[in-house]
């Protein structure tokens, strides 16, 4: 099954045709966002990119995608598929009816969510979180984005704002944050913080990465005590620092977290450089339809699973699988068991 994934960010719009059985990008394309042109123009560019990919898929004999997933910056109402709010990185973006625009423009069922939520479900289905129901995902870059998968489902919260992990308060009287508060994790674990640590450490990159990792670890202590995740996945540009960042974070977690979470694996994201496109495509599989062991996706909005003639029953909280069996982060559909990884918890 092939789905289309579109990622709309502040600097680029990326898209791809994704084989959802293997998590493999078959076609890919990108264009500059040129966000200063305003929301309606950015939306038109994204639609043009999507149409181009559909045409290429047809011409190359890959078939047309059965659904579309869109990951976008800003706070998203995933039910209505509308941008609720956005920062100045995407001016005029708030209020954009993404789902309606893509369904009208492509005549394909479309699902929409925040871009970091898309990254998280992609990692849960195909990457570092495969086979696990309870995950935290943090994207470290210009800011610190976050996503929560709890009991196999994305946690959106009562108002769609769940998962703002970067605004966990580390120091009540700490540095001012763009959110209007003070002392948020974002101000101690983002790109600006890394640059500040480098300057303070005489441009010693290793020492700066270590300090960044310690601050990240402090945030992970509270998050682990709150959510008790199976594993924590670190993505974003600063994840390229690798073990220089992750090992001090794990050390702080071991030393300070409650006993149950001290050994929680802290792992790098696994899907780069196609993470955003694969994650967006994964959003195209939101409904709890049967998932065969050989398939990476049961079906998107209104897309039946292979051989299905009727909608599957909804998954209620009482019938949701336990931690012993992983379920899909978007739909709650049971996922095939992951192959065991030798010594995976030893990384914590």
UniProtKB/TrEMBL annotation:
Superkingdom of the source species: Bacteria
Sequence segments annotated as region (Disordered): 299-348
InterPro entries tied to this protein: ATPase_NBD, ROK, ROK_cs
GO MF, any single term: glucokinase activity
Protein name: Glucokinase
Keywords linked to the UniProt accession: Kinase, Transferase
Membrane-spanning residues: none
PANTHER family reported in the protein's UniProt record: BIFUNCTIONAL UDP-N-ACETYLGLUCOSAMINE 2-EPIMERASE_N-ACETYLMANNOSAMINE KINASE (PTHR18964:SF149), ROK (REPRESSOR, ORF, KINASE) FAMILY (PTHR18964)
Enzymatic class: transferase
């Amino acid at each position: 099954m092939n789905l289309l994934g579109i990622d709309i960010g502040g600097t680029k719009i990326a898209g791809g045709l994704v084989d959802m059985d293997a998590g493999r990008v078959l076609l890919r394309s990108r264009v500059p966002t040129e966000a200063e042109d305003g929301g309606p123009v950015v939306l038109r560019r994204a639609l043009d990119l999507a149409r181009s990919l559909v045409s290429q898929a047809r011409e190359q004999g890959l078939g047309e995608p059965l659904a579309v997933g869109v990951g976008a910056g800003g706070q998203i109402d995933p039910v209505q598929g509308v941008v609720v709010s956005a920062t100045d990185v995407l001016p005029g973006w708030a209020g954009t009816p993404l789902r309606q625009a893509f369904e009208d423009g492509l005549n394909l069922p479309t699902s929409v969510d925040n871009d970091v939520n898309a990254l998280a479900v992609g990692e849960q289905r195909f990457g570092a979180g495969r086979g696990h129901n309870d995950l935290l995902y943090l994207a470290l870059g210009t800011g610190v984005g976050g996503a929560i998968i709890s009991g196999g489902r994305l946690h959106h919260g009562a108002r769609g704002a769940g998962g703002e992990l970067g605004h966990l308060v580390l120091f009540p009287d700490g540095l001012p944050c763009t959110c209007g508060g003070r002392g948020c994790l974002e101000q101690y674990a983002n790109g600006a913080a890394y640059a500040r640590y480098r300057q303070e450490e005489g441009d010693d990159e290793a020492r700066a990465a270590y300090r960044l990792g310690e601050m990240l670890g402090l945030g992970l202590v509270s998050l682990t005590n709150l959510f008790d995740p199976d594993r924590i996945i670190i993505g974003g540009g600063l994840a390229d620092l690798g073990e220089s960042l992750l090992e001090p974070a794990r050390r702080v977690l071991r030393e300070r977290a409650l006993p149950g979470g001290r050994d929680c694996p802290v792992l790098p994201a696994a899907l780069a450089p196609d993470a955003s496109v694969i994650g967006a495509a994964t959003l195209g599989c939101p409904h709890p339809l049967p998932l065969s062991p050989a398939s990476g996706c049961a079906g998107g909005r209104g897309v039946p699973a292979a051989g299905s003639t009727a909608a599957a029953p909804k998954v209620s909280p009482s019938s949701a699988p336990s931690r012993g069996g992983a379920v899909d982060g978007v739909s709650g559909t049971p996922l095939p068991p992951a192959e065991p990884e030798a010594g995976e918890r030893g990384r914590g």
